Amino acid sequence: MLAQQLFNGLLLGATFCLVALGFNLVVGAMDRLNFALGETAMLSAVLGALIMTETRVPFLVSFAAATLIGGGVAVAVYYVSFRFVSADFPTASILSSLGCGLVLTAAVTKAFGSHQRSVPDVLSGVRLDLGAFTVSGAQLVILLLATLLTAGLYVFLERTPWGTAIRAVSDDATMSGLLGVPVQRVILLTFALSGVLAGAAGLLTGLAYHSISPFDGFTTTLTALMIIVLGGLGSVTGGVLAALLIGLIQTLTVAYLSATLRDLIVFILVGIVLLVRPQGLFGRNAGVLERV
Amino acid sequence: MSSFNEAVVLQVGINVLLALGYWIAVSTGKYSFGHTAFMAIGAYTASILTLNFSWSLPLAMGAAGVTAAVAGALIGWMALRLSLLYLAIITFVFSQLVNLLISQWDYVDGASGMVGMTGTTVPLVLGCVLLVVGYLVLLSRSRLGLAHKAIREDERAAMASGLRITRIAVGAFATSAAVTGVAGALSAHQLMVITPELFGPHQALVIILYCVLGGVEYFWGAAIGAIVLSLLPIYFDWLNEWYEIVYGLLFVALMIVRPQGLIGRGGDGGIRLPRLVPRRERESVG
Fold first, then answer.
1. What's the Cα-to-Cα distance from B97 to each of A270, A275, A279, B76, B199, rounded to whole Å?
2. Nearest residue of A to residue B76, measured between CA atoms
3. Does B260 touch chain A (CB under 8 A)?
4. Which residues cross the membrane (chain B) (predicted)?
5. Interstrand relation of A211-212 and A127-129 (parallel, antiparallel or unpaired)
6. Is A153 near chain B, with CB under 8 Å?
7. Contact A225 B255 (CB under 8 A)
8. Exposed/middle/buried for B138, CB within 10 Å: 0-12, 13-18, 19+?
């Protein structure tokens, strides 16, 4: 029982991790938060589920479609809420992306209704029995895709020229620009990547719960915020660890305490972390108060 | 006054109070993304007092203001030392926390809400607005108001000039929370029914929009923003259906064209069109 819950928790954490990575990429490149990312995830998930139920294409095709839609929406949000918004007003892009999120949620409810949308199961015949716990086909797919995307992102950031450029821009945008890095294009790339991750996370979370609600977007943003505060703003490793931790805490709370306490315990944990270690549990830079 | 006009005046008056309360926090440059938490605290405190302890409304409003101020001071003390991004996150989380706690609290009927508060009258609302406007007029002519402005414009310079910026900012935040709490109490006794959902993120965004639409430089900018935005949906019915889309787009358009709000100067004055090629990628601080 405990082993099963631990596994479920890690699985939940793996999907959280994707959105949190998306947030962290953008924070790294621009020092600004894209508050519409949760809604981006929701929109891609709803469209992905719609494609799957309407056209009966294999899951992987609709998954690819969801990631592409996520990337596209994130790029659109970049142009609307970041590119043409003055950097002199730090709140401007926060408010603007919150507004984008409102519009996305309202547009989805207007176009497709506000009901919960079911996500068809995948690999429903598969069931791995590993002694202490069992893994269903859907869980296997989630685990594989989430791991693949996280590992792929890591390799991309560490081993490719564009990944190096992203890290350079998060380190010092002015200096990278002077050294010939096309900063605007790199920022655009980080937004597209964050959207791809959000789209993937949205559909995978939908698969885990077998349903998607158009009002999930905001919850996703909230969870991702908890994760990046806990893991340290802009820290990729911290984000991954914090996502797994929050996934575990939420699952164990629901399993052994009560479903209503799920968010409460995470909120309290985050509050304590903000008071005691504002740079996050895994953040290294103690100068975060100066920097952010 | 017809009951329709009365309802309009009450609604607009309460929204103006919310905007002015929010403006007090913003006048020090500290944006909260969870001011509905204080509204909820005020609304529930006052409702419990009038319903279960049969206090009179003005007395209960006072208590609501004090409770909200205490909560505001606590959150401000926690969050205002941190930078804008963290302040945004922590206030946001706080409002979610308050919402969650209220919806779990059986004494106030949890998510189904409290029913039966009455007694908000036009003189009471207008009196509160006048009181707050009076305070703000005095504030903007006082050294404290100047200190707020200094902190908003440049925190480091303010600190270097000997201002105790954390104390001033926390004070402003608590005052802001108090006004918001009183507005919450009034709105609870006008709506006659309150549920935690009323104090959700949408309401928080609307309060911010009141302020940023009018501009954060002068308090009457916030008041005008509140008046305009509360009258629009009343007199344009079709807006109700498109409410969220219109408000969302308003945010987006406003931030591109006039991030400093309709009223107020933005650096060199006049309407600046955004540059197609931004001048610099990122401002390095420190």
1. 11, 16, 21, 15, 11
2. A275
3. yes
4. 6-26, 59-77, 84-102, 122-144, 165-186, 218-236, 242-257
5. unpaired
6. no
7. no
8. exposed
Residues in chain A within 8 Å Cβ distance of B201? 218
| CATH code for the domain defined by A2-113+129-291 | 1.10.3470
Residue A4 to residues A90, A123, A131, A218, A246, Cα–Cα distance (Å): 44, 19, 10, 28, 16
> Which of B18-27, B74-83, B171-180 is the least confident region?
B74-83
- Joined together, the tokens standing for residue B178 give 């108090």
Judged by a CB distance cut-off of 8 A, whether residue B257 touches chain A is: no
Tokens representing A90 are 């730090």
Q: Is A286 helix (H, G, I), strand (E, B) or coil?
A: coil
Closest C-alpha among A226, A264, A212 to residue A20? A226
Q: Which residue has the tokens 């930078």?
A: B83
Q: B108-143 pLDDT, tens per residue?
A: 887 788 888 887 888 999 999 999 999 999 998 999
**Are A122 and A138 spatial neighbours (Cβ–Cβ below 8 Å)?**
yes
- Model-level pTM? 0.82
The dihedral over CA atoms of B176, B105, A205, B87, expressed in degrees to the nearest 10, equals 20
pLDDT tens profile A240-254: 899 999 999 999 998
**Going from the N-terminus, what domains does chain B have, and what CATH number goes with each?**
3-257 (1.10.3470)
Q: Does A102 touch chain B (CB under 8 A)?
A: yes
d(CA A221, CA A101): 10
Residues in chain A with CB shorter than 8 Å from the CB of B79 are: 274
What is the average per-residue pLDDT within A153-170? 90
Angle at A40 between CA A36 and CA A41, to 5 degrees: 120
Short-list B208, B184, B258, B25, CA closest to A102: B208
Answer whether A225 sits within 8 Å of B247, measured CB to CB: no
> How many beta carbons lie within 10 A of that of residue A258, not counting itself?
11
CA gap A67, A254 in Å, rounded: 30
**Domain limits of chain A?**
2-113+129-291
Q: Which two tokens stand for residue B259?
A: 């991030």
Comparing CA positions, the residue from A121, B182, A283 lying closest to residue A291 is: A283
- Distance between CA B63 and CA B54 in Å, rounded? 13
Which of A30, A93, A102 has the highest number of chain B CBs within 10 A, making it the mutation to test binding with B? A102
> CB–CB of A222 and B252 under 8 A?
no
β-pairing, B114-115 with B193-194?
A: antiparallel
| B199 token code pair | 């104090």
